[in-house]
Amino acid sequence: PADGSVEQALMKIERDALAALLKKDIAAFGRIFADDAVVVIPDGSAQTKAQLLADVKSGDLVVESSEISDMKVRAYGDTAVVTYVTTDKGKFKGQDISGRYRWTDVFVRRGGTWQIVAGHGTPIQQPPK
Q1: Nearest to 41 by CA among 118, 127, 126, 109
Q2: Which of 73, 84, 90, 98 is most buried, by the most CB atoms less than 10 A from its CB?
């Protein structure tokens, strides 16, 4: 488990990153990711930091609204895992991607700064009726 200060710091970083994404503030959104970060997006493809930021900048990825819930932080020295759920409204390359997603972000603290080195998002399926 994370100590309170690490837990609070990482939760704030995640919330600040989401706020930057919603405002299309690419510089602020990009700061959360290490240059060598890899993110597996919900369609299953892997993206580099540069590809992810290019999608935001070009308008290929548009997140109109997003709410975070169920955030948990587990810290292991200079490495931490953050899991959470988002309820999103948005589009990716013109297709509606609105829905609920479970995210896992792996952070590493380098030079006193926490950054994501790996991330993964999975759509939460609705249970069959």
Answers
A1: 118
A2: 73
